[in-house]
Prior knowledge:
The complex is a heterodimer. By secondary structure, chain A is an alpha+beta fold. Chain A has one domain: Cupredoxins -  blue copper proteins (Immunoglobulin-like, Sandwich), CATH 2.60.40.420. Helices cover 20% and strands 47% of the residues of chain A. Chain A has a five-stranded mixed sheet, with no helix packed on it. In chain A, strands 2-1-4-7 form a four-stranded mixed sheet, with no helix packed on it. Chain B has a two-stranded antiparallel ribbon with strand order 1-2. In chain B, β1 (34-37) and β2 form a beta hairpin. Chain B starts with a helix and ends in a 20-residue tail after the last helix. Chain B has eleven helices and four strands. In chain B, α1 (2-24) crosses α11, α4 crosses α7 (189-200) and α9 (223-233) packs across α11. Copper (II) ion binds at residues 36, 61, 97, 99-100, 103 of chain A.
Amino acid sequence: MTLKRPILHYALYILASVLFQHTASAEEYTVDQKNKKFSIETLNAQVGDTVHFLNSDRFFHNIYSISEAKSFDLGSYPKGKSRSITVDKPGTIEVRCAIHPGMKMKIIVSD
Amino acid sequence: MPNIANDVQRLSLAGLLCCLLSIICPTTGITAPEVQLEDQKYTLTAGHSSLQNWLLPPQNKYPSRNSVKYAKLSLGEKLFFDPGLSSNGNLACSSCHNPQLGWSDSKKTAIGFRGMILQRATPTLINISYNPVQNWDGRNETLEDQALEPILNPEEMNMHIPTLLKTLSQNSNYKDAFKRAFPKRGITAGTVAEAIATFERTIISNNSRFDEWIVGDKEALTPRQIQGFAVFLDPEKGNCAGCHSPPNFTDSSFHNIGLASKTPDMGRFKHLPLRSMWGAFKTPTLRNINETAPYFHDGSAANLLEVIKHYQKGGIDKTNLSPEIKPLQLNDNEVIALKDFLTTLTGTVKRFTTNPQIRTSN
Ligand SMILES: [Cu+2]
């Protein structure tokens, strides 16, 4: 019985610190797509951050990654639309556009 | 076929009328057409500063005769034209990429080993050095990666690396040529690819009438061709420049353009399995386009009017059609002007050349 309380406290502390850390430090980034280029070449982010990919071109873009740190396909979407990812694992995410092979950027995710 | 002939007749009549009109009212030619494309406003007069992004970047200087670069180029040229690089000795790179046929083969789709009819059309090699990715489906990034593929493909030149290296090293001319070009590496699969790729990078077209007009020659394009360029650029008209972008008339982007193929070719999807890539193929350059008929990856359009008609319809088989492909509303006059403009993109390819005399069969 005497042991239970400290363990519970400890568990609560861990939970609170994890939650606190994530809500307090989670950043939102916006990467623009303009003239068939990404506005940022290398983005440094932390686990839990969200990256929005805005399309400011008259053409559709199709952002994807097949990196181990995160693989995703945001599909094609037109001008004015934005889709996002949340980075959940440390590592380097090579981001590409499936339609325009010249479009390249990367997100370096740290803990 | 009679349909096409009728169309051509009808369209050329419209074009003729338009020509006559511009002769009758020469004053209409005074204000230069302007086209807004993204942030760029193009003023369509010869030499105008807004047009300069259509000029290709300058090329490296021609190498001097004694340089290693020269040795690499002349070796690359010999390899490119040598049927000894195929297993039965009758197919060279140049069999499909024929300089006389716009560095392509004028066939609907390529003909490979023992007359086998292949699935896709031979892409031209003109200005290939400007492509960030190679092949219709972009499966190779560099020309070095690409160069060995057709040589080793059982459906194409059907060669094997050990046989290839043995054949080359048994030929004293090749042995010397490799020693000059690759003093430290000699004959390897890598140096074969590098020599061929080096040669391919010299296949450049940058001196067309269009280029002359861009740098200021007023006589280089007719008013109708300039009108065709306006149709080409205008997002509300041809909307061609979105993909066939400056300076090489391509951005190497991948699109499913809605061709009516009976046997669907997955295209880019095979190498990048994302939904939008199913049936998508790389946008080809339009430079020297009137030398490289038939058109599209399946060779299904016999001429430029058929290509324009395809885009007028906005594609036929709309399965996974690219959202950029929408029916166009070009009138006959605009179609003719556009086609006429496309014929001005042909330059003389001043490729590197020596006389290819070495043959492995010698
Ligand atoms: Cu894109």
